[in-house]
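Aim 2, interim progress: modelling of the ISE-bound target.
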Amino acid sequence: MSVRLAIIGAGIMGADHARIFAERLPGVDLRVICDADEARARKIADGFGVKDVMKDAAAAIARSDIDAVVVASPDFTHSPLSLACIAAGKPVLCEKPLSQSSQECLGVMAAEQAAGRKLVQLGFMRRFDQSYVEMKAALDNGSLGRALMMHNFHRNVETPGADFTGAMAITNSAPHEFDVVRHVLGTEYAAISAFQPKRSDARVAPVMMVIETVDGQLVNIEINNNATYGYDVRGELVGQKASISFSGLAYSMTDAALSHKTAYAADWRDRYAEAYWRQNKAFLHFVQTGAFSATASTCWDGYAASLVAEAGVRALHSGQKAKVDMINKPQFYCAK
Ligand code: ISE
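Predicted structure of the complex, ligand included:
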């Protein structure tokens, strides 16, 4: 039986999810594209042979011929729409972040626990990227020894708008690192510091963060939303015995004029194409079998990312190290 799917949000990520489900994942009947801007929804629907477009997300979620939902609308809608999916008993693949408010994340966690089963898979796709898969495996199989430090660079060509701020680098971009670093290290965070260098123009400067884990490891994260030259994500995990690192993906290299060149992706969709596909495949499997992926992020992970982001913004604004005070992990989220 095909999974009858609705996608809410017809922006960059809604379009990308539609393409992945329509072209790369058999077993999906993509029925509805929903967006407040109907013309935008229609454009995607026509591109992938989807019959229905809708403007009302709640009505799309409630449809009796929809089994599962993808939420790819603006960040502030993620948590209310996830709550609507939980109330309807429908699995949802919700784009990151679950919410920019840890309090709101707790509300979604409470609703999910009351429903008695996991329904929200959070779209932190980097967990499925081969670079992090290999990094985690190297740590888990003991070849690195104890993890000491993890270095992370995350650079975008430019901000989506001129109103992008340093705080937004922490709440919108850094959650990928906040999530995947916890996942790779298998730990939680204790404190965060955040700083910005000065640019010579009015564009938002990079944000440099240092996180201390509860196990005494150090993690640094550079978010540069105006790197200009390309989409570039790098990482290195330094262990007591060895270190493992990764940089961009390159399928080809050009040697010419006394130089050696590889290209950068323009944004995250190309760089993480395989990770998105693996993530969405895991979601489909979850909808079909009820088995929640052991790799995927839950609402608990969404809460953890949002809590450290809030502390990061406090640290950036105050210039002081901020503590990350988590609630105890509910038993519900302990076994996947
Ligand atoms: C964007 O919202 C994403 O989620 C991308 O994956 C990330 O690389 C980018 O920095 C964010 O702004």
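The chain is about 35% helix and 25% strand. The mean pLDDT is 97.
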